[in-house]
Specification:
Elements: H1 2-5, E1 10-13, H2 18-27, E2 31-33, H3 48-63, E3 71-82, E4 85-87, H4 93-103, E5 107-117, E6 122-133, H5 138-148, H6 162-167, E7 168-172, H7 175-179, H8 183-194
Parallel strand pairs: 1-2, 1-3
Antiparallel strand pairs: 3-4, 3-5, 5-6, 6-7
């Protein structure tokens, strides 16, 4: 059904994330990859979902001038929100270890915002998923960081990797959101924009 609705449109995905690209392939949505680097800095007064939505729209703004009729641009941003602060992509081994130590034994939120833009219109939305780690030992944390080097992942971990299999006890909400793309939201937004 989605493919039929989109047959008169060209979907542009602006994300270097291999996980997001894989989701589009699994959804059967043909897309063109169009990347443009953006400095991902949000105003200090924003919190939680506000940060993710601002950054997703910022990425859309960077690509908007190049859009043609019948093109639908998809941009997204995922943040990890813990104790009223954002945990970004870790800059190095020590930062990744500190992040996972902070998340150990606690709940946090993974928030992904999605922006779908055309020449004439734009939609933005987000999904929030609660995630709880069991207590994780320093040995486990160091093994994970050294083996998987999660420096391209908000919060310093990927739920689909070893740490997710052994240490995540509970999630509340969308699993695909934690991986990096709330697929039901993306489909709903594309259907709306293509209609």
């Amino acid at each position: 059904m989605l493919q039929a609705l989109l047959q008169d449109h060209k979907v542009i995905l602006s994300s270097a994330s291999p996980r997001r690209q894989q989701f589009f392939k699994e959804l059967g949505i043909p897309y063109e990859l169009r990347l443009k680097p953006v400095e991902e800095i949000a105003p200090e007064h924003l919190t939680g979902a506000g940060i993710a939505e601002y950054l997703a729209e910022l990425k859309a703004e960077a690509q908007a001038p190049g859009l043609s009729d019948k093109e639908l641009l998809v941009t997204a941003d995922t943040i990890v929100w813990h104790r009223e602060r954002m945990l970004p992509k870790p800059g190095d081994r020590e930062e990744a270890i500190r992040m996972l130590q902070a998340l150990s034994g606690e709940w946090h939120e993974v928030i992904t915002a999605v922006c779908v833009s055309s020449v004439k219109d734009r939609m933005i939305g987000h999904r929030t998923t609660g995630v709880r780690f069991r207590e994780i030992s320093n040995t486990e944390i160091e093994y994970y960081v050294d083996e998987y080097q999660p420096y391209d992942k908000a919060g310093g971990y990927g739920i689909q990797e070893w740490i997710g299999l052994v240490a995540i006890e509970e999630i509340r909400g969308s699993y695909t959101n934690v991986v990096g793309l709330p697929t039901t939201l993306v489909c709903d937004m594309l259907i709306h924009m293509a209609s």
